[in-house]
Every structure is written in C-alpha cells, then in structure tokens.
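$ ./design --mode recover --in tokens.txt
reading tokens...
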C-alpha cells in the first residue's frame, strides 16, 4: 500500500477526486464557511449524524465534494483509540471493488497519536492474505491519502507509522502462511531476501552449524521433524561498531503439534502461527530498512517444527543446552522455551545493551491477558519501563508480569539442572522463569504474544503485533544518545 499525507483542510479535501472520502468528525467540530463543512454541520443539526464514536453516515455523490462516496464518521474526543475504531468502521463498509483512491481526512487539526491511529487502521483494513488462494480478489486500492490542515507538524509521525505498518505487513504475511508454505527453510530464504534489498546482513545456519554450536536443546525440538531447522542471524548496523546492539530473539516454531505430548485436534491448525515471534523480528527489520535509525540491532530466529515421529524427543529425555545446563523435557509441548534458551545463550556473543525475546509461548498468557495486551516480563527495571511505554506510544499494548523466584520452584527436578515445565498454575511466569536462567548476562525482557499475535474465529489471521511496540522501543534508543 502506498500512503501519502496532504496538507488539506476540509475546503481542500472537497475538491479531491477520489472514490471514497472518509471525514473524521470530532465532537468539538466547528464548521468553517466552505460547503463541505456546512454539509457536516447540517447533518449534525438535523440529527442524521452525531460526531460520537461509533456513529457513521454514508452519502453518495454529494454536490459539496468531488468524492463518489462520502463517509462521515464520529470520533468523539478524538483519542487514538476512537480514531482507530472509527476508521476501521468506515473502511469495513467501504470495500467496493471500485475503490482505487481513498482519502481519509481530519475535520480538525490532527494530533500525532491520531495520525498514527489512522495509518494503523487503514493498513489493518486493507491487508488481504492471498498467497494460497487460486483466484484472489484483485486489490484495486493502491493509494491511501491522509489529509489534515497541520500536515507538516505530523509528517515525522506519519512517516514512522507508514514504515511500521510495512513491517507489520511482513509479520502478518509470514505468520498467516500455512506451515507447508512457511517452513524453517522458507523463513531463512525470506530473511535473506529482506536483507538483499536493504542495508543489513543475514546469515542462515543449518543443522550442522547448530550442532557445532552445541545447541542441544534447540536440536531436541527439531529432531522429530523431516524439515531441517534454521537459525537465522540478522544484523542491522546503523550506528558505530562500538555501540552495543539490542538483540531481538524470535520463536520460530513453524508448526507446533506438541510433539509426543501431542495437542488435541481442535484448533491445532492455529499452531502454524507459532512462528509469530520470528515473523515480528522479520517485520522489525523491514521497518529498520525503511527508517534507517542510528542504532545497532541483531535479530535471532530459532526456527523448526515441533513434530511427532520415531525420532522425536520423549518426555523424560534430558538434553544439554548451549549454556551447559541440562534440561529434563517433561512435556515436549513446552518447546518454545527449549529453542529460545539456546538462542539467548547465542546472544551473549554480541555483548548486547539489551535482549528482548518475542514468543507465542504459553496458553496461560492468553488466559491471563486475552488478546488486548501482550505479557511483558523484564529482569531489568529500565528496560521493562521502556518497553511498556513503547507499547503505549505505539498503540500496541503490553502488561508487566512478575518474575519472583518462587515461581521457579516447580522447575526443580531430580534428573537435570532444570525441568522444562512447572505446574499448571502461573504457567506464563514459570515459562519466563525458565528463560531467565539463560539470560543472566544482559538486561533481558520477554514478550509473550500468545494472545495478541493472531485472532481466531471469523477474522482469523495474524495481527502483526508486536512490531509497533518493538520499533517504538528501538527508535527511543536511537533518540536517547
Ligand atoms: N505454542 C504454544 C503456546 C500457545 C498455545 C500459544 C495456545 C497460543 C495458543 C506452546 O508451545 C505450548 O504448547 N505451551 C504449552 C506449555 C505447557 C505444556 C507447559 C501450553 O501453553 O499449553
Ligand atoms: Mn507447544
Ligand atoms: Zn509452541
């Protein structure tokens, strides 16, 4: 999608020739003297329209503007949340095959958060998965224009939002692709493809190299599958070499059937999304390539399938991780932490300023926080606070979860240094406590995106989260020096 920002108030917007014009009307709306403003004022006065959140009025070829279809939508106070919902509502009803040119206009000077909200909402409403459809509906909408009278004030925010949604699109696309079209090998190729077009490097390791590194825990998860594992190392160098990088670590399980501790059949298809953490790392790199901030970032992706076979790892097996710690695999379905722990140990070599892992790690986190906020765990106070703020700013929310040592009690075992599961209670936290053992040498945070990375039901599909949060955090680091 092409986005463009134009410095236009309602007067200017009226003369634009577009298929759909969406006007965002706040409760504080004051009509100027132009015809379009007068029309908006009239619809309010006659009670045919209210500038409240959730209210909408469709008009066809009104003489007051050049648009084929005019949609007035209320944004209430004009908060980011209201604006995002309003644009989503307007665009849900605007899916006509003839929609080629879309213009979304603020009826009052736009706030930065609201501009960001408009871009996020347009991107969400217009993304369409087509990769495995034999006759995809043609995408006619090629350009979305956002208009506000104070465009120059919000240009930087707009450009950032456009780059972020490009990253979200990469994340959505890879997460959505079925597991037979998104194998570890495919992910490695996608990373290399991304790196080709931009200023970052990419190295893809296979089973031999990973064995040499001693990643016994990662290899144990991969051993039941016919698909060879991939360990992907991306490097974006936007600052001096002496500047310590931020390392992002993505869980890249391209399909999680649970292994020998097999999952029930219902909704098992959704476990194709179990590489959403990895997809978000790819998405962040897409955005970095566009924005070119002055920071160094390393992306690590541990990717494999978690499958059942005669070669699969068994409950009770003890494996040796790259850190040297031995792990008793009591449940083969707790595989995310097993691939991440070796990636965390690998991260040590970069002497990172911070390491953030992103994983669809536990059903328990989904139960705790639902689809609204991702779970945030942080061993470092400043890092935890920065990520929480980044989530707020990016409209990609998370919620701080605890890391008390008592939560690790259940991970004790008589047969290894640590077990890969605790009890059922506090499952999202015990998973984080397991990871923390492998993240002692740097400030570390963990985002459990099990509830937020995709939607189930009629709108089943990837959300592109938490690309926005991560990019916002990285840009904060770039601004900090
Ligand atoms: N990928 C799943 C977590 C998951 C489950 C994400 C449902 C989204 C929806 C993960 O690998 C897993 O299976 N976790 C287990 C851990 C348990 C065995 C301790 C879980 O949450 O049930
Ligand atoms: Mn699992
Ligand atoms: Zn999993």
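writing sequence...
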């Amino acid at each position: 999608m092409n986005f463009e920002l134009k410095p236009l108030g309602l007067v200017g917007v009226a003369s634009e020739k577009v298929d759909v014009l969406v006007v965002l009307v706040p409760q504080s709306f004051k009509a100027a003297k132009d015809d379009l403003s007068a029309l908006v004022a009239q619809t309010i006065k006659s009670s045919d329209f209210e500038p409240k959140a959730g209210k909408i009025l469709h008009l066809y070829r009104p003489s007051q503007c050049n648009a084929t279809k005019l949609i007035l939508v209320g944004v209430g106070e004009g908060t980011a949340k209201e604006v995002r919902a309003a644009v989503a509502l307007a665009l849900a009803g605007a899916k006509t095959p003839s929609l080629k040119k879309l213009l979304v206009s603020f009826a009052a000077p736009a706030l930065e958060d609201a501009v960001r909200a408009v871009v996020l909402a347009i991107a969400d409403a217009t993304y369409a998965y087509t990769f495995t459809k034999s006759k995809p509906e043609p995408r006619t909408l090629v350009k979305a224009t956002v208009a506000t009278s104070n465009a120059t004030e919000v240009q930087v925010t707009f450009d950032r939002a456009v780059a972020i949604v490009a990253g979200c699109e990469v994340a959505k696309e890879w997460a959505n692709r079925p597991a037979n079209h998104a194998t570890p090998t495919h992910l490695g190729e996608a990373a290399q493809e991304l790196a080709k077009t931009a200023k970052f490097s990419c190295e893809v390791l296979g089973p031999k190299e990973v064995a040499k590194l001693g990643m016994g825990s990662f290899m144990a998860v991969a051993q039941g599958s016919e698909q060879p594992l991939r360990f992907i190392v991306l490097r974006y160098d936007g600052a001096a070499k002496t500047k310590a990088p931020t390392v992002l670590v993505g869980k890249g399980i391209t399909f999680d059937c649970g292994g020998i501790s097999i999952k029930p059949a219902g909704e098992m298809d959704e476990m194709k999304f179990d590489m959403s953490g990895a997809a978000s790392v790819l998405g962040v790199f897409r955005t970095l390539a566009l924005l070119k901030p002055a920071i160094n970032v390393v992306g690590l992706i541990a990717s494999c399938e978690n499958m059942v076979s005669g070669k699969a790892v068994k409950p009770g097996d003890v494996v040796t991780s790259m850190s040297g710690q031995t792990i008793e695999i009591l449940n083969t379905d707790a595989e995310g932490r097993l691939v991440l722990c070796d990636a965390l140990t690998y991260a040590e070599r970069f002497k990172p300023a911070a390491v953030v892992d992103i994983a669809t790690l536990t059903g328990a986190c989904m139960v705790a926080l639902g689809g609204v906020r991702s779970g945030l765990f942080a061993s470092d106070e400043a890092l935890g606070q920065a990520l929480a703020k980044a989530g707020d700013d990016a409209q990609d929310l998370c919620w701080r979860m605890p890391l008390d040592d008592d939560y690790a009690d259940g991970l004790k075992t008589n047969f290894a240094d640590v077990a890969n599961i605790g009890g059922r209670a506090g499952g999202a936290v015990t998973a984080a406590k397991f990871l923390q053992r492998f993240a002692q040498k740097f400030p570390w945070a963990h985002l459990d995106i099990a509830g937020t990375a995709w939607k189930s039901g009629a709108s089943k599909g990837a959300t592109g989260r938490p690309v926005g949060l991560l990019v916002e955090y990285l840009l904060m680091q770039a601004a900090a020096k």
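exit 0
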